[in-house]
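Retro notes (design track)

What went well: tokenization of the new backbones is finally stable.
What didn't: we kept losing track of which sequence belonged to which structure.
Fix going forward: every design gets posted as structure first, then sequence, in one message. First example under the new rule, 254 residues:
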């Protein structure tokens, strides 16, 4: 039988719409559904579909989080800690992201900085803020001697194939490509630094997905993308530390 994701607690960013919202929907359908789904977004009040899901499912806990509001991280971590206690946090999914299309003639310092802040700096800082709770989850499941998995203790950063240097044959998209390539490097370092604590880290490419970001002409729906991503996350172990996986299970070159 195929392994299935069995994380008890999962924290996600950017759940107001798109891939983040679909993650929440599909996590609720897992055979071993999480006890805690910490679904965050910039403005919970305006996220009607997400609010609806939380009303119907007691596993869904909502909190406002702008990922660039670094000063709010300690209180968000405390909010999670209060609920999960000694069990810690099993899985952090840094999903929130922005897509800037500025070409060479219009790219600006501001645009570069903004993409880096949201797509790379924020996932790194949030990961660091959650390390103590991820370590707790890892220890609760046997610490560094145990098998690594996304059900035990894991950080998944949602990147893009556009952040692959080897895959870049069409140029352009300076801020997006560079910020995701930087996210990839940050994730690789995290995977090395946190391995001894039993925390698995890597990046995933969701495919070209029909969301506000991907547009209507994108190749796949959020359902197909997230179904694939959950299957990938279910299958990862210690030999995958520093993974760069596509939603279809293939490995993407750095
Ligand atoms: P959407 O544009 O549909 O959604 C983006 C999400 O990120 C929204 O929930 C948005 O919140 C949130 N977000 C943006 N900025 C912030 C911030 N500062 N703080 C908190 N949340 C924020 O995009 P997708 O769902 O398509 O993308 C999700 C991830 O997948 C991104 O990291 C993206 O780069 C990646 N990706 C997507 C692809 C695609 O084809 N769609 C392809 C490859 C990668 P709000 O509603 O408040 O704006």
């Amino acid at each position: 039988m195929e392994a299935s994701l069995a994380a008890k607690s999962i924290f996600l960013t950017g759940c107001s719409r798109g891939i983040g919202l679909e993650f929440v929907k599909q996590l609720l359908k897992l055979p071993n559904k999480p006890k805690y789904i910490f679904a965050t977004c910039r403005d919970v009040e305006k996220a009607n579909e997400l609010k609806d899901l939380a009303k119907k499912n007691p596993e869904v806990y909502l909190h406002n989080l702008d990922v660039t509001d670094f000063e709010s991280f300690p209180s968000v971590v405390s909010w999670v800690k209060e609920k999960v206690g000694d069990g810690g946090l099993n899985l952090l999914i840094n999903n929130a992201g922005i897509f800037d299309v500025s070409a060479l003639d219009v790219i600006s310092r501001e645009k570069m900085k903004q993409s880096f802040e949201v797509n790379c700096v924020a996932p790194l800082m949030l990961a660091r803020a959650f390390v103590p709770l991820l370590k707790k989850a890892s220890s609760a499941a046997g610490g560094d001697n145990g098998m690594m998995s996304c059900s035990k203790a894991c950080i998944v950063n949602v990147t893009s194939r556009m952040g692959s240097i080897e895959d870049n044959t069409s140029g352009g998209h300076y801020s997006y490509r560079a910020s995701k390539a930087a996210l990839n490097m940050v994730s690789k370092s995290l995977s090395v630094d946190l391995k001894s604590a039993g925390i698995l880290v890597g990046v995933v490419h969701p495919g070209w997905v029909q969301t506000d970001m991907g547009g209507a002409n994108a190749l796949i729906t959020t359902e197909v993308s997230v179904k694939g991503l959950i299957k990938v996350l279910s299958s990862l172990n210690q030999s995958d530390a520093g993974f760069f996986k596509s939603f279809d299970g293939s490995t993407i070159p750095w």
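Added context from the reviewer: Residues 13-14, 16-20, 41-43, 65-68, 95-99, 118, 158, 160, 205-206, 208-209, 211-214, 218 surround NDP (CB under 6 Å).
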